[in-house]
Amino acid sequence: MDQIVVNGLGKRVVLPLGLLTLAALAIAPVAQAQVVATSPYTVSVFAQGPANTSQPDSIVQWRDSILVGFENHVAKDGTDGKSSTIVEFSLGGTVKRTFSVPGHNDGLRLVHGDELWALQNEDANPNLVVIDLRSGRQTQYQFAPTPHGGGYDDIVVRDGEVYFTASNPNLDANGVNDYPALVKVTLAGASVILTPVLSGNAPATNITTGKVVNLNLTDPDSMTLDPRGNIVFVSQADSVLVFVHDPLKAGQAVGVLPLSSTATGPAGALITIDDTSFAPVGASALLVTDINTGTIYRIERPVFGFDPGQPYSASDTAGIVGTLNLDSGVITPVVSGFGSARGLLFLSKQSGGEEHGNE
After folding, report:
1. Choices 3.40.50.11540, 1.10.3720.10, 2.120.10.30, 1.10.630.10: CATH for 35-358
2. Is this structure's pTM higher than 0.90?
C-alpha cells in the first residue's frame, strides 16, 4: 500500500495514500509544517499552547518541568488590565499547571532554585511577580518610577546576583539613550531596588574591529550568560549583542558585536534577534518558542550533537534559529520558517539519561 509520513508533535504517523487528502486538510492550518531544518538538524513540535493562551515567549526549566510565558496579546505597558499566563509543561509537552500574572510577561528566570521570577510590562509600568513553584504562592513587587521612562525586559542571575535589562528607553534630542541599560536588582519589602550597571551610551570595544565605540542601546532586551560568565544581552532594534565582563567590579569591561545574516527581516532589513543561548556539554535538544503560532519546537542535532559553547540565536524578524559566529557576528540559519522565533532553552542528558535544562 502507498503511504505518506506526516511529522507532528514529535511523532511520525504513517497514513494510507487514500487518506492523504483528509490528512492534508487536517494539518494544513498547522504552521509547523512550514518549519524546515537544515541537515544535520531536525525539528519537531514539543507542545502547543493550551486553550485561552497565545504568544509563547520566555522559556525556562524547573526540575522535570518546562515553564513558558504566554503573553496573550496583553498591552506591553499593561494598561489594558489583562494578564499573561505562565504554563508549566512536563518534559513530554503536556500541561501540568498554569499561573496568571498581571500585565505583559516577557522575562522569566529561576532564582534561588525554586523561585520563578516573572517580569511584566517591558514598555512601561513594570511589575515583578515571584512564584514559589513548590507551593504555587505568588508575591508581587513594585517599581519606583523608572529613570529611563520604559520598563524592564529580561532577567539573568550571575554569582547569585540578579540583573535586568532596561527596555523602551526615552532618547535625547539626538536619539541617544543616556539612561541605564543594565541594572542590578535587589528586593526590599514589596519594592524592587535597582543599581545602574551600564549606561546605554557607554564606551565598548567593537568585537569585530577591536576599536572602542560609544554604544547607543535603544532597545535592550533578552539576556543570558556565556560560558565565561559574561552577561550577554541584545539591543534588539540595534542588531547588536553586548557582553559585560565583571559587572560593577573594577575590571568591568564591555564588548559589542554587530549582527548580520544571509537571512534578513522584512524587505531585506537588517536581521534582529530575540534570545541567544550557548550549548552546554551534552546538549540533547534546543527548545524554541514561536510567538506567532503558539508553538514550542524541539530542535535536535543527531549523531554528534551540539558543539559545546556554540551560541544559537533566535530571530524574531527573519523567523530562524541559527548558529552565531562570535568573531564576525554572522548568524547562519539552521532552522527556518518560524513565524517569529523567540525564547531558547537547551536540554541536556544527565548521567542517568534524564534531561535537564540550560538557559
Report:
1. 2.120.10.30
2. no
